[in-house]
Design brief:
Keywords: Membrane, Transmembrane, Transmembrane helix. With 262 residues, the protein is α+β, with helices and mostly antiparallel strands. It has two domains: 198 residues, no CATH class; 47 residues, no CATH class. It has six helices and four strands. Strands 1, 2, 3 and 4 form a four-stranded antiparallel beta sheet that branches. Helix 1 crosses helix 2.
Length: 262
């Protein structure tokens, strides 16, 4: 019986007290990993900041907006996704998650900024083909306005800072020998290599297409009616389509008539 009491006091009871706290720390670490993944993936589809080698027109997000979205959508538990998450300035619930509490019920995540993302890294692809070869091709085609995104290595970082409580080491109740670990910072990193070259809006499609369609210059200039009249006069007898053909016209987001109703 004596051995059981001693074993319970020195091993079993501390173990039962430590397991819940370890579970909370594991949850914080998992949230940091998910946040890093979210930020890296978001940057692959949203241009902005220094994460693009070119100045793209269209939709974009700053790293602060992606950071706020990660706080609301990943770190906050059970919250609905809203379009204004990128402008949020605080957690809906104190401490982001009810699980993240110390043994005295104080919140582990004290401040909104304790969940941080920081700048989202972006660099050239590490291999020769997509890094050097495509970089040389892009340098040539960019003269005409056709630019490929070659910075396809996206790096997302996350750091979640949580508070801890001192651990008293004196059986008499005195805190003279307490151990205070201070704050804990859980970090994670996610790297994605992606060259999707996805269009960033209708204006981006038009800009990119114009770079490989030289006749687009005719459509956007005062020469359009002259070229169209000459084409109709010279070739209209053989090919009537030249009389109504709009040479060099670029019009994104046009739905084919057979895909429309009524």
């Amino acid at each position: 019986m004596t051995e059981f009491v001693v074993g319970a006091m020195l091993f079993l009871i501390p173990l039962y007290l430590i397991i819940p706290m370890l579970g909370k720390y594991a949850d914080v670490k998992a949230a940091a990993a998910q946040t890093a993944r979210y930020t890296a993936w978001e940057r692959t589809v949203w241009y902005g900041g220094n994460s693009s080698s070119n100045s793209w027109p269209g939709n974009s997000k700053t790293y602060q907006e992606i950071e706020n979205e990660a706080r609301q959508r990943v770190i906050s538990f059970g919250q609905k996704i809203q379009s204004n998450d990128k402008a949020a300035g605080s957690f809906t619930d104190s401490g982001a998650r009810n699980l993240w509490r110390n043994r005295d019920s104080s919140v582990m995540l004290q401040k909104y900024d304790d969940a941080a993302v920081g700048n989202i890294g972006n660099g050239n692809s590490p291999d020769t083909v997509t890094g050097d070869v495509l970089g040389a091709i892009t340098a040539i085609t960019s003269i005409t306005g056709f630019k490929l995104e070659t910075n396809g290595l996206y790096t997302g970082n996350a750091a979640i800072t949580v508070t801890t409580l001192p651990i008293g080491l004196n059986l008499s109740g005195s805190d003279s020998g307490k151990f205070d670990p201070g704050v804990l910072v859980f970090r994670d990193k996610n790297v994605i290599l992606a060259n999707g070259w996805g269009a960033n809006g209708a204006s981006h499609v038009k800009t990119q297409t114009a770079g490989i369609a030289p006749l687009g210059l005719v459509n956007d200039s005062s020469l359009k009616p002259v070229v169209q009249a000459l084409g109709c006069a010279l070739l209209g007898a053989f090919t009537p389509e030249f009389c109504w053909l709009e040479i060099g016209k670029i019009e994104p987001d046009v739905v084919p008539p057979d895909r429309l109703t009524n």
